[in-house]
Each structure stands twice: as C-alpha cells, then as structure tokens.
Amino acid sequence: MTFQSLDTSSPSRPVEVPPGAMILRRGVAGAGEIIRRFGLLLGFLVFWQIGSTFGWINPTVFPPLDKILAATWTGVVGGALLDDIAISLQRSGLAFAAAVTLGIPMGLFMGQIRAVEQALDPILQFFRQTSALALYPVFILLLGLGEASKVFVIFWATLFPILLATIGGVKEVDRKLIEMAATFGASRGTIFRRVVLPASVPSIFVGLRLSATTALLLLIAAEMIGANKGLGFQVMNAQYNFQIPQMFAAILLLAILGLSANAALVTLQRRLCRWADLNH
Ranges for the ABC transmembrane type-1 domain (predicted)? Predict the structure, then answer.
C-alpha cells in the first residue's frame, strides 16, 4: 500500500466570490456612502414633509415638499418660470463673465508686481469692505433701474473674490520653483506660463466658486428692486400674493442653479488640476 503525502506548503486557492455577492457588497457600500454624505439632509427633508403634512410645523409657512415640487414642476414644464430662469441666468452670467474677464488678469498682474499691489491695495480693501447692496442706490442713480444697474451690482460683488483669490494664488507660488526655472534659462514669460499660472489655478478656482455663489445671492437682491422678471422677483411676488409653494419653487430653482454652477466649476477644476488633491 502506498501513501501520497499532502503538500501543506502550497498556497491555498483564493475563495471565489459569486458575482451576485460582489454586486450586493458594492450596493451596500454605495448605500452607506450616500447615507454618510446625505443622511442628515434626507432626514431633514423627511421631517419637513411629515411635519408639514401632520401639522407639527405650520403648513402655511412651510408647505409640504410635494406641493413645492408640484409648483416647481408646473412652473417649469408649463413655461411660467422659464423666462424668469433665462433672465436670471443672463443677468448673473453677464456679471460673472465680466468679473472673470477683469478680475483674473488684474489679479495675475497685481500678484506679480508688488509695487502695483501696494498702490492699489488700500482702495481695493476699502471697496471690498463696502457692501454692494449699500452701493446699489448709487448704481441706480448712475445707471437707472434697468438692466445695467442690476448687472453692475452683481459684477461689483463678484469681482473681489476672484481678484483676491488670484492675487493670493500668485503670491503663494513656491519661489524655489521660479528660481529653478530661471536657473535653467527660462524667460519671464515662460516662467509665468509654465510655473506661476498653473500653480495659481487652484486658488483661482476657489475665487470662481465663491464668486458664482455671490452672483446668485446678489441676483436675488437686485431682482427684488425695480424688476418685473427673474427668480428673485418671483420670490417677492409670490410672497406678496401669499403663494407660498410658488415662493419656495423659485427658491428651489435658485438653489439648483447654484449647485449646478458649483458642480460645473468643480468638474472643470478637476480636469485642469489633475495633479492637485481636490477632495473638498
């Protein structure tokens, strides 16, 4: 009789996980991530819906979410709010584009030339600390109650976050990188294109995201004074007529516009700054 020895030193085979179990694990992990990120928000919305429906909170002031969503759907699909959305986007978009066009080049210039920054910084800080809403009556006196004053007050408020973030981004560039590029014979233009500008992009995008939020905030205030179109006007008009679901529908659309603008900027930043850590 012969005996075969068992080779216990050979590695054991990995346990194969069925495809169904893998899908289940990924689903559970994904659900857990959603709960961690949005659990508090979802809980708040559920409480709003249930509390308003059963009268725990005043349904006149805080109508149920289904009524707000129904008013939003009716306003968008029926076309009643489409003109207001378009006008609000036009106002905030023009102001934001003008702030980007002026703020980024000016910030890059001031960040590199210290004498210019020192000369302009006092007046820049003075106007930055002056509320754009406080200056809005001045803009109305100069430009009238038309579109120009509304666009300009939004532009005024959105300019400073972009400008200051760009200046800060340029000043925070590692000087050793600039010195190394100069040591290898790079010209000032090449150093700016290859070192200063790429290193400043993350800070510039922080300013862009802050300015996009500011544009929507000032848009609401601008459209509440002397306007007959726009989402900000619809918020005030619905409140005056006590159409609370329609008021919250306009507020919801403004929030969606803000989230969309921020998501678009984050996506663009990730593509332009793949080397940076963008976990926030």
Answer: 85-265
